Amino acid sequence: MKKLSHYLFLFFLSANAYADTKLSPAWSSSAEFKNPESVIYDPVTKHLFVSNVNGEPLAADGNGFISQMSPEGVMAKSKWLVGLDAPKGLALKGNLLYVSDIDQLVVIDIEQERIIKRYAAENAKFLNDVAVDHQGNVYVSDMLTNRIYRLANDELTVWVDDDMLNSPNGLLVEHGKLVVASWGKMTDGFATDVPGHLLAIDLVTKQLQDLGDGKPVGNLDGIEADGLGNYLVTDWYNGRLLQITAEGKSTTLVEFNQGSADHTVMPEKNLVIVPLMLDNTVVAFRISH
């Protein structure tokens, strides 16, 4: 574990002067991950889980794995669980860890440290983030098909299929809605001619609408609430952590190298923790309001 660099700290002092949420450096892990894509905190084990793609994001090569680390940034088990292809989004439901893995939703029993089920997502191409609602339904986005799947009653089916999703990536359940961070309208590869923004889907009616004015923001990845009615959102392609208001206005809080991925927020420790996919590290910042 190491402290963040001095130039980043100076950036925060100036960049956060105009933001409601202020950040200061907490810690940075050593570069011992392999393309870390998502991080989540488990209050039972009191550890963070980190998904490692370990190669190409669409390669069904069997070398993806999950790491376990402390909330202070110290590695506990580098390969806590193996046998995945290119794991990305993570979500918790009780003692179960749900992981998206290209075209499958994988269920891991945390106590037993083993995979107990795999759900195939029909016609899925690039499953990404995962979220769980208060009824225990599990949602997973597919960036390449403009779909969101839902696991309900032990069956994984297409829940929403709409081009308005604009390559859905990050997911957050909040106030009866599924808030979606979109990547944008893709052209060649993962490049976009129109960057993404935030959208919201009513969990009952499935009504889909832009959050705010729908103005393009960036190639969005992870999304979490900031505790003030706004959202902390990563921009993977441009390497940023943003604060986005409910009206869609965005402010850059931190700048990284390209690859800032699916982060988590720990309110009990006032931390936001961000995996840097291309730097093979995970970094944390202290939150103050």
UniProtKB/TrEMBL annotation:
Residues 91-256 form the SMP-30/Gluconolactonase/LRE-like region domain. InterPro entries: 6-blade_b-propeller_TolB-like, SGL. This is SMP-30/Gluconolactonase/LRE-like region domain-containing protein. It comes from marine sediment metagenome. The lineage of its organism: unclassified sequences, metagenomes, ecological metagenomes.
